Amino acid sequence: MNEVRMKYWKRELQRTIHEMENLAPQDDLILNYGDFLKARDFVYYQKFNPVVFENLLDLTLQYWNSDKRINRYSLVQTIKKYAHKPGNKINSLSPAVRSKMFEILKKSLFEYQVISENQLDRVRKTCNRILINVALSPDEEHWLCENIGHSDFLLNRVLRYPVKSEIISNWAIHNFYNDNFRGRRAELASWVIDNDPNYEIDLNTLKEDFECLNQSDLKAIQTYDDELYAKLITDIEFEDYLPKKYPMKFINYDGYLPPGLVDPSAPVLKLSRRFYKTPIDNSKIYPVPIPNFDELRKEFNANINSIQKVTMIWAIGYSRINNQTKIKLLKKYCSAETYYSLYKVGKKLKLVSLLKWLLSLQ
């Protein structure tokens, strides 16, 4: 057996043994970076020890801006896995510990110069996941609301915040008709439901959301076309001076590249995510499916009542009201068109009585 295989099997055996024994680690398991390197492969498989967890947080914060060779991605990945072990009650940790978790996310967004470019996105995603379902202090809630524009990760942490918050409720109400957040209607509405469980999204708001998303997508497509045209002109003009990523003869003037050829400098086209049926326009090739906006509008108007019901189902699911009230409200929106959405919300939230009720309708 070669050396690489031996190292692999040594790690696998250690992990398996630790998982089977399920012992509680000693408080001093990880006190420095050397300790971390020895323990990172198996600490997840041991019982959760809040002292070890806080030591991991302290180590990450201590070394974040260090000029030493530190694998920050490995540190935050270990923190994420250890924090969200099945059965962990993360909000039972002290506010001071949760503040350290929050501080790591802030560092990934604003002190990122120490992270290599190829790791930065993964580090930020992992730091964001560390904070999933974590309740913070009022000052930290306020900071999240004030800095939403810096990252979609911060927007997610606000809209999916796990407990009721007057600060976030006020932010959601103030931004309820903000065009920047119309694609997150169900989550915004969940904060209104927290204060008024009988609230229902009106059809006019959904129509305004729909038209706003259409305009946003059309603008994104036009920007993509303009940037792509400028790039192609530049590539042709300076072909003899640019690195040869691929032969120019492979490029069509609509920007299409044959499968297997990827241009890392090409513009990116990002469109709105929609949960309802979206007819596709196949008249021109784009890197992502493009809606047929005329057909989409017909489809939307024909199904707006069902779209309202599905939006309400998810808004109730995202809300922070008690489960008994959620189930009572969810049943109001049951129909053949919304059955799957009710099932998904019931499964996600482990609403057994709702699932049994759905079963009784079969």
Provide the fold topology.
Layout: H1 3-21, H2 33-39, H3 50-63, H4 72-83, H5 95-110, H6 117-130, H7 138-146, H8 152-159, H9 166-174, H10 185-195, H11 203-237, H12 293-302, H13 304-318, H14 323-331, H15 339-348, H16 352-360
Q: Can you offer a commentary on this structure?
A:
The chain is built from 16 helices and no strands. 57% of the residues lie in helices and 0% in strands. It is globular, with a radius of gyration of 25 Å. By secondary structure, the chain is mostly helical. The longest helix is centred in the middle third of the chain and has 35 residues, at 203-237. The chain folds into 2 domains: 3-163; 178-362, no CATH class.
